[in-house]
Design brief:
2 domains, about 500 residues, six-stranded mixed β-sheet, elongated, single chain, binds flavin-adenine dinucleotide, Flavocytochrome C3, Chain A, domain 1, 15 helices
Length: about 500
């Protein structure tokens, strides 16, 4: 998605950027701020605003040359129950229903306290954005068509379809109300936390001016996930090493590693919820764009089969709930899937193909291939030819037509005489579920269950599973990042002001 942030990025970088001087070389002993926020995405900007609101002096550190983090590429769906927009359309909803839906989709693996806090705060936070300059897309709320469905429409989007709208509003409000207490630095990469007597009291920063130490009473890690750090994926969740990713290049997880080094516990690092639809352009191609496959959920294209390396199907390809597919990908070796169909199935879909750029991908010859026999197609992708042949014979048998198959699919189609097409596809990371364990006050928690004094985490750095469990409900990346950012900012400011 094209970022809509450029203009604001410039504005923010120019108007909020204040160089911190006089720290190079000599480690300071006095605090440079009450609260240091590391990372300028949704959680970081939420934290900045929450801390400023509570009277803190805040230093925001961002390693990129522009502010905004993943909000620069994220669509910005936001889920909340009981909004004015829902009421205006006669949609009856409740916080409890939101919680129940997330527990259903997340297999009840969320931290109940954090999930409740998110669901309870989401409505007021959404309305605050609307009241402070965010334009909601009037077609919302919707049941997000590309993820496991909620029971009622409760997912909103800014009219601009960009998560950066939330950052824009937070930054404008922060600057207008509390600008004199905020310093924001870009190209300021935090490389480590500073600990004294078991407390986190500062950060080491590497930037154009060299190495510096900045000190504060409280540090908030809003450093995002680790979906673009292949080494971290291999280290914590090797099962997903071959998954592709659509996460931003800066989602490299060093905040999570720093927190662990400082004594914080990490949670759920062993699993990742794989999204369907990652089509590589080459063997080592891990960065992809969303939406390559129009056979995805929103615009269902019927008749194709998905098979594993043995040529066996493993899921109802046409089911209207995303979760069984995401769960099934979890069980496939390397997350590698082959989508198979033939010319007859294309014809039955009105001549459309399941890919937006089918001809170009076919010509490229890596992820999309054509063959005149099932066996040759299977071999070209390293899939068992006999297995694929058997699967196609099974779905094409006259007795199978119009019947419910073993996966509950009733929309299967018989294959004809070809030619046959295959689309290579991988489970795809678009956010990471593991991260820094926090308590109900967003304090990082150590192995003894006690808070690591001075250290807070918010957003994807805490792992989306803490509020969403083992699954993904639409609009629960953006909303909790902002909400827990705000909460962490307020909590950290209160701690800093308490003089403890
Ligand atoms: C393509 C895409 C589309 C998405 N669409 C949606 C959607 O529509 N709805 C939804 O709910 N969720 C969506 N998500 C997920 C959601 O956008 C993210 O989970 C969320 O934005 C993460 O926010 P964050 O503030 O926690 O982290 P980020 O926005 O990733 O911010 C982390 C920031 O920390 C900085 N940083 C990291 N390490 C350091 C360091 N050492 N020193 C200094 N700075 C550092 C990074 O540069 C970055 O700016 C999407 C994700 C992707 C990838």
């Amino acid at each position: 998605m094209k970022p809509s942030f450029t203009a604001f990025g410039l504005f923010a970088a120019l108007s909020l950027l204040v160089s911190c001087v006089g720290l190079a070389g000599s480690p300071s002993t006095s605090n440079d701020a009450d609260v240091i926020v590391v990372g300028s995405g949704l959680a970081g900007y939420g934290a900045v605003y929450g801390a400023l609101e509570k009277g803190a002096k805040v230093l925001l550190l961002e390693k990129n040359d522009k502010l905004g983090g993943t909000s620069l590429i994220s669509t910005g769906t936001f889920s909340a129950a009981g909004t004015r927009l829902q009421k205006s359309k006669g949609i009856v909803d409740s916080v409890q229903s939101h919680i129940d839906d997330i527990n259903r989709i997340g297999h009840s693996k969320a931290d109940p306290v954090l999930l409740k806090r998110f669901a309870e705060e989401a409505t007021a936070v959404w309305e605050w954005f609307v009241d402070n300059g965010l334009s909601p897309n009037p077609s919302g709320p919707v049941i997000d068509p590309v993820h496991s469905p909620y029971s009622v429409p409760r997912t909103m989007t800014p009219t601009k379809n960009s998560a950066n709208e939330y950052v824009r509003v937070l930054a404008e409000q922060a600057k207008a109300k509390y600008g004199e207490r905020l310093t924001a630095l870009v190209k300021a990469k935090v490389t480590d936390l500073v600990l004294e007597k078991g407390k986190v009291v500062g950060v080491k920063v590497s930037g154009p001016e060299g190495e510096k130490v900045y000190r504060a009473k409280a540090i908030i890690l809003a450093t995002g996930g680790y979906g673009s750090n292949r080494e971290m994926v291999k280290k914590y969740s090797p099962k997903y090493a071959e998954f592709r990713t659509v996460t931003a290049p800066w989602s490299t997880g060093e905040g999570i590693e720093m927190a662990a080094k400082a004594g914080a516990t990490l949670v759920n690092m062993d699993y990742i919820v794989g999204y369907f639809g990652g089509m590589p352009k080459a063997a080592d191609h891990y960065a992809l764009g969303f939406g390559d496959l129009s056979s995805g959920f929103a615009e269902r294209w019927t008749g194709e089969i998905w098979v594993d390396a043995d040529g066996k199907r493993f899921v109802n390809e046409d089911g209207d709930d995303e979760d069984p597919r995401e769960t099934a990908i979890d069980g496939i070796k390397d997350g590698k899937i082959l989508i198979v169909f033939d010319q007859g199935i294309i014809d039955k879909n009105g001549g459309k193909t399941p890919l937006r750029d089918f001809d170009a991908r076919l010509a490229q010859g890596y992820a999309v291939k054509k063959a005149d026999s099932v066996e040759r197609l299977a071999s070209s992708f390293g899939v068992d030819p006999a297995g694929l042949r058997m699967t196609i014979d099974t779905v094409s048998a006259p007795s199978a037509q119009g019947q419910r198959d073993a996966f509950g699919k009733t929309t299967g189609m018989a294959f004809g005489s070809g030619p046959y097409y295959g689309v290579l596809c991988y489970g795809t990371i678009f956010m990471t579920q593991g991260g820094i364990k926090v308590d109900s006050r967003l304090r990082a928690v150590g192995a003894d269950g006690k808070p690591v004094t001075g250290l807070y985490a918010a957003g994807e750095s805490m792992g989306t599973s803490q509020w969403g469990g083992r699954g993904y409900a639409g609009g629960t990346g953006v909303a909790p990042a902002v909400i827990f950012g705000l909460d962490a900012g307020r909590e950290a400011a209160a701690f800093a002001k308490s003089g403890k």
